[in-house]
Amino acid sequence: MKAVGKTLRDIISEDEKDQIIFGYEILSQPDPTILTRIPHITHRNQAIATIAKEGDIVLLNQPINQQYQQWLREVGFGTDAIHEVETDGQTPITELVTDLRFKIPSQEGTRIYVPRMVSDTDHDAASALNAVLFGGNTDLVLKYYDKGEFKTRCQELEIPVVEFRVLEAPKGIKVSALSDAIREILETSEGAIVKAMTSSAGADTYRVNKENIAAIAETVVKEGKTRVIVEALAKVRREYSSQWAVDLKGNVNLVGICNMHADQKGSHIGNTYPTPQGVLATLTKYSHRVGTDMSEQGYIGNFQLDLFETEHGILMSENNTRMSGSSIAWDVFHRLNHRHKKKGVFISTKFQVPPNSFDCIKESCRDIIYTGRDYNCFFPYDIGAIDITGQFMGVIIAEDQEKAKSILKEIERKGIKSSISSEYL
Predict the structure, then answer these.
(1) Cα gap 337→344, rounded to integer Å
(2) 2 has a pLDDT exceeding 60
(3) Distance CA 177, CA 108 (A)
(4) Helix 175-186 / helix 213-222 crossing angle, nearest 10 deg
(5) Which residue from 50, 47, 121, 100 is spatially nearest to 79, judged by alpha carbons?
């Protein structure tokens, strides 16, 4: 049973004549709090430059980090075709495209526009560029992204999920109704979770027990929510990330399945590969069943499934109908496997330093950062805000687990903090 498939970039197209245009926009995600909740989030749009190949076009709404761009090109990644429109970063890339702010040269082959998560404006952008959209109907994207609708569909597909209740009230949910739903869940569970239908990274998520039902219900109602999901709090042994993509021909392609790690608030902090063989067949079966259903409905594009293991087996949790942070880690891993004719392991996580330049990171990690020669390496990505916040992502790739842990320990010795520490592993 395979846990590793193809790169997302190759799933989009393997025809060298095709013109791939990346319009990676974090603001396309249906989360109105994202700009205020995650400082400088729009700087992270430039993470997509790592996936791009020679000749691809990357559209950005602010300048790329030139030090990182130079390093990418030195090690045989990325593209020189970076098209920038200098703004405050708060105007979505799709709007800049439809306003014809980007001038894209034509070339032989099919022009394919690739968004992070399909929205109505991505359809407009693809049309303005006279390109095929690597994505489907916006309503379909949101249907599978919606936590309540997705869990209901999983039940119809005979895929196990936790017990849940969906509350919907156009004029606002009442405290009494929410409290009753929570109590129903708590009859068979030690705890419950209340979430907004499109929450992400632990936002709009509340843990409930018998003592705080009233307080949590009042908090949620005061926020004016009109639709929420109440879920049983499962005793999770392990969490998994299963990443796939439906191509333009409707084929369901595996990108990869790995372990997923979150902090106590439920925020994603990283991934590790490989996944235990004992659960791989079930993870693959459930994931492919979802992907087949999505394809039959007309879905096109990347999707990443969250699953977890309990004493009762594997349960499906959520469907992120977009590219995710692990999309880039998987791409780097696949490409290094192919380039160096190896198949190893990886650790992908968040890193923190004082606000700094990428060149400083490159210099301090000169003995372990990827140079194009050594498979066992540290490969930073998502560094758009490094000079402001000092935060970035990185993937450690190695021939085996011990070597990967050794590289992580070396990174930590250099004063670079990691969300997944070597002690944790």
Answers:
(1) 8
(2) no
(3) 59
(4) 140
(5) 50
Task: Give the amino acid at 11.
Answer: I
Domains and CATH numbers, the chain: 10-140 (3.40.50), 163-232 (3.30.1490.20)
**If we measure between CA atoms, which residue out of 247, 243, 52, 57 comes closest to residue 136?**
247
DSSP bridge pairs for 192: 208, 232
Q: What is the pLDDT of residue 129?
A: 93
pLDDT digits (tens, 9 = 90+) for 27-47: 888 877 777 777 788 888 999
Average pLDDT value for residue range 318-339: 94
What does pLDDT average to over the chain? Answer: 92
Determine contact, residues 211/278, Cβ cutoff 8 Å: no
304: Cβ contacts below 8 Å, ≥ 6 apart: 241, 242, 243, 244, 319, 320, 322, 323, 324, 326, 327
Q: How far from 340 is each of 135, 334, 381, 397, CA to CA, in Å? A: 32, 10, 20, 12
Residue 54 exposure: Cα atoms within 13 Å on the Cβ side: 5
| Residue range 132-157, pLDDT digits in tens | 999 999 999 999 999 999 999 999 99
